[in-house]
Specification:
alpha/beta, about 40% helix, 12 helices, 12 strands, single chain, Spore Coat Polysaccharide Biosynthesis Protein SpsA, Chain A, 8-stranded mixed sheet
């Protein structure tokens, strides 16, 4: 059987309320040469049943269901499984509670082919509130823009080929690392061994940065492709207590910073300019801490800091990442005294 042009990868965990809407949005695509790979991360609800109901509506082999052996706790590992099984020339990711527009796959494919792009990025997406009722309705629909450019593009626009400028755009300016809303050449991901860590959330930051740096051709497009659902009870929106929050976030930060340090050490520009290397690491640590603050809304900063220093003694944490975070915290403490 001829391989499809596009592999659509959907990590799934306890998505019985959403996965049908997600898959129907793919079925509604005007571009039809695709396969859908759903990776079930040990769901405890009827998610798998909902997927199996829709298998007959896809062409033969067009909807495949795989499963992890144990729950990984986040979407990263299921995405890796999807990449492993994908056969398309291109890959795109959709979260199991999100949807795509009927024109999304066609828009991505046409631009990728025209520019021979490694990554195509739809810099705008539709944001909508979750509706608990069984009937699907779009509520409080809005357009959100997150990109590394000064302003949104009107036509397909390549990112600069100057690596220093790209990195500065990702560290100094606002940069969106979400893996969905993007379109990747599969060979680009495989040849550069790009994958996701096993984290509850925050698994996409370094993956997105590495893609941004390594892509020979990285294209922004003005078309909206994805609809993103806002859920108040999602893992990335929960407020955590100090001890739990510190443990979760230190695992995320230490793993991500270890991966980032290993990556920037492969870049000639960072080997030649150690100050620039340090600026990258510091910028990403700061980004993690800014994001982390929203998880500690009811806790005073000095309490969080103490818990962090205590938790940094945990031998289970990534040692290289732990060294980077410890040095960063001590430097900040010294500068504020």
């Amino acid at each position: 059987m001829t391989a499809p042009q596009i592999s659509v990868i959907i990590p799934m965990y306890n998505a019985e309320r959403f996965i049908r809407q997600c898959l129907i949005s793919v079925l509604s695509s005007k571009f039809t040469d695709y396969e859908v790979i759903v990776v079930n991360d040990c769901s405890s609800d009827s998610s798998v049943v909902e997927v199996e109901k829709l298998v007959p509506y896809f062409k033969q082999g067009g909807l495949q269901l795989f499963s992890t052996q144990t729950n990984s706790g986040g979407p990263g590992i299921p995405r890796n499984v999807g990449i492993k099984h994908a056969t398309g020339k291109y890959i795109t990711f959709i979260d199991n509670d999100d949807m795509i527009l009927p024109t999304a796959l066609g828009n991505f494919f046409d631009v990728a082919e025209k520019f021979q792009a490694d990554v195509v990025y739809s810099e705008k997406f539709l944001l909508f509130d979750d509706v608990e009722s069984g009937d699907f309705r779009l509520k409080n629909l809005s357009v959100l823009n997150l990109c590394a450019l000064e302003k949104p593009v009107d036509v397909p626009t390549p990112a600069t080929n100057n690596l220093r400028e790209r990195i500065q755009a990702a560290t100094v300016k606002e940069f969106c690392t979400i893996p969905w809303g993007k379109f990747y050449r599969r060979d680009f991901l495989l040849n550069n061994e790009l994958d996701f860590p096993q984290l509850k959330f925050g698994e996409d930051g370094i993956f997105g940065f590495k893609c941004f740096c390594l892509a020979k051709t990285y294209i922004y497009i003005p078309q909206i492709t994805n609809l993103h659902r806002v859920r108040e009870n999602s893992a990335s929106r929960q407020t955590l207590d100090s001890n739990e929050g510190a443990r979760v976030w230190l695992e995320i930060i230490t793993e991500n910073m270890s991966r980032l340090a290993a990556f920037v050490d492969t870049l000639e520009i960072c080997r030649r300019d150690l100050q620039f290397r340090q600026e990258i690491l510091t910028a990403f640590i700061d980004k993690h801490f800014v994001l982390m603050e929203s998880f500690f809304r009811n806790i005073k900063p000095h309490v969080v800091e103490k818990v962090f220093f205590d938790e940094l003694q945990n031998p289970a944490l990534n040692s290289r990442g732990k060294q980077l975070i410890t040095a960063h915290l001590y430097a900040k403490r010294a500068l504020t005294r």
